[in-house]
Amino acid sequence: MTMAEAGSYECLRFRLQGDASISVGYWGQEYVRSLVGEIGEALEAQVVERAEVNALVTEILRNLMEKHAEIDACDFCLEIGELDRLKELEFSDRQSQDRVCLYLISCADYLPEPENKHALKLALDLYLMAKRYTHAFRVANILGEPELVPLEQVPPGSMRVQLELMQTPKDWSRHYHDVAQELEILEAKTPDDIYKSHLVESGRRLGTLLGSTHMDSARENLAASLVNAFVNAGFGSDKFITSSSEDERRNWIFRNRAHGMLSATASLGMIFLYDIDGGLAEIDKYLYSPEEYVRAGALLAIGLLSGGRIADDCDAALALLAEYVESENAHMRLAAILGLGFAYAGTHRMDILELLAPTLADASTPVEVAAVTALALGLVFVASANADLAATFIQAIQDHYSEAFAGVDESKADSAAESAKPSQAEEAQARERMELEPPSDSAHRRQADEEHAAQVADRSVQANGFGNTAELGEADAAKRPSTAPNSASRSENRNESTFRHPLARFFPLALGLLYLHKRGLSIEPVTDALQAMGMNAPFISEMVECCAYFGAGDVLALQRFLGWETGLAPMAAAANAAGESITLQMSLRLFDRILQFGSDQQRRAVPLALGLAYVSNPRLEVVDTLSKLSHDGDAEIAAGAILAMGLVAAGTNQARVAGLLRELSAFYNEDPSLLFVVRLAQGLTHAGRGLLTLAPFYSDGAVLDPVSAAGLLTLLVLCLGPGSMRETLLGRYHFFFYALALAARPRFLITLDADSKEPVPVLVRVGQAVDTVGQAGRPKTITGFQTHTTPVLIGVGERAELATNEWVCNAPVLEGIVLVQRREQISEHEARP
């Protein structure tokens, strides 16, 4: 073994020529490892045939399993490309099987396609062979194919009940209230309880003496409505809109103006989150209001009730919203379509497709309605890779996209403009479509006027942050100056689409949502189709790729994203790194480089990217970075950083972030728009009074929830691009903040008795998770733990384990609702014939 020349394979040749009756382990473990290395090299060099070493490979694998070297056995099978041989092995105990399956699941993150899926499916098969259906279902969720573990194959018993709880959440509202009662947080909170204005009141009095302005009442009431919705989410009560006094409820809604009434009414959907029956009874009265914005808000509230997670056997949302899909009232039509997307997110319901597809396929549909329809269908069919729907989206993009300049750069557009001058009718139609800049020469004079108006607006923005361009009424929105990019910014946007309508970016987002977390091979037909149709606009293909690699942790994809020249590059890097610790650490350094040397568009996207990568995970270094960026001279960077602080601390009640946001409320007291964003961030920090998380990963951070990721992307995509946040979330589309309801998920651990199905207190240890994959023996899986009695709250990066041998459970991970049994009861059950 030690004296042979490299490439001679003497150890392997002597073994093949020698006496096969002698056990391969007779010569010791080092001899076996030498054989393993030589077999892999010989097969790769084609020195031996696989048939010659088949018997030896089987013998080596059995020896490794007997010596509890399961990781070496997995590596050997990976090296020779025969993972299926692991199915033929016998595991000495459940721990041995766990070591093999966990190692395969961990290796899948670093294997190329399609080998990564092969490793996961092997782990799934091993669990199914051992009849560990809940563990198999967890692997099926990692694959994105939960149907691989059908409930019908599971025999009746506690494991089947646990699997039902994992597949379809039940009684979330009841357990939600039980946990709140146990933690003594049932009392409703007001926005003032969150703002803690008395701590910064002295600074405000000083600002008043100096003649500073204060947030206008309409914007302040809108901020309070949104904050109230997120803070009291899921509790079914607050001190405003669910007040016992009818006058107080009505007065609270009508304190808002125009679209503000829509968001105020829609907050009922957040307050009654997961309680469909109770919410419908409260919302019903608003469907008959004479005010159209109130009726539209009620329709959106109906869609928010399920949070994209709770199934409704009565299909109340479909029954109530379907009749408004073709409504003549634009606000009610948008609210109904968006409500359907929220209510049935991730369900892949074909009847929803049949209902909404005609609206999307009609080329005469207004851009606003078509874009929201595409988003709704993208939410319903998220991560489905539905090829027919993808073709429909591509056709819709073509119908609502400026065909003259699609996929060409600025120099080509200038030359094309000389030979093709559009008519006045074509120009009027183009105002509602996405278009690459610049327009034709016949429109240069109009563009010069718009640029002059934009420069005047920019000077007012510089004097007062965002200015007051985000008024809540339609009349104010109509007065808003155009935000067409001027010639100075063309070098930055040379390869980026400029969307004339602020919601037009939902078209590429909807297309990308179909392939969320599907990686590169699945999107090749889509990118080829876009190129074949002449739509080479980078924003479209890059958005599809950003969604496809969400949570993949692919280093090669990360390097490719850094070569993009659009503002989507940091967002794609964050989406790719989300959920993978090593790639996240790498991305932090990359974002620092972009802040120093990147373009303005990329720098403005960095805070949003940090918020996406660290949702509900307020790491110290991330909060420090965002705190610095929140004081940036660029108002868009500051607004993005403030919103990202809210996302990073969402549902954690972290005192440090809450203190920083209070300081920012005093700092931006003179800027109504930025103060509005600060209020929203404060509401997100205390979302669900600490019972909710917006993190898109669950089950010990191994499983991506596509509905949660889609909700986060819906909000953040509206913030990309110059002036985008001002035109959307800070304008009349503030109700898209409710897309975060799709990302919300209870972060409690509650244990139910397997017999009575009622909560039972169980001792558990909660601490920081430790990666023990591949380690020998039985290492500790958590560190810095504390012992609690359920129910308990579990944050991002934390893990829980049973602290006593009195109870056992079938759940692969202690999260959410877990069924437990006493150990002696299981013994008696097993003793029965």
TrEMBL record:
What keywords would UniProt list here?
Proteasome, Repeat
Q: Where in the numbering of this chain does the RPN1 N-terminal domain appear?
A: 1-149, 168-199
- Per UniProt, the ranges with Basic and acidic residues bias are 428-453
* GO MF term list: enzyme regulator activity
Q: What Gene Ontology terms for biological process does this UniProt record contain?
A: proteasome-mediated ubiquitin-dependent protein catabolic process; regulation of protein catabolic process
Q: Does the keyword Coiled coil apply?
A: no
Which spans are transmembrane here? none
Any one Gene Ontology cellular component term annotated for this protein: proteasome storage granule
Q: State the superkingdom.
A: Eukaryota
Q: Where is the 26S proteasome non-ATPase regulatory subunit RPN1 C-terminal domain?
A: 773-822
Q: Which InterPro entries is this protein grouped with?
A: 26S_Psome_Rpn1 (IPR016643), ARM-like (IPR011989), ARM-type_fold (IPR016024), Proteasome/cyclosome_rpt (IPR002015), RPN1_C (IPR041433), RPN1_N (IPR040892)
Q: Where is this region: Disordered?
A: 412-497
**Biased composition annotated in UniProt, kind: Low complexity:** 416-427
Family per similarity comment: Belongs to the proteasome subunit S2 family.
Protein name, entry field? 26S proteasome non-ATPase regulatory subunit 2
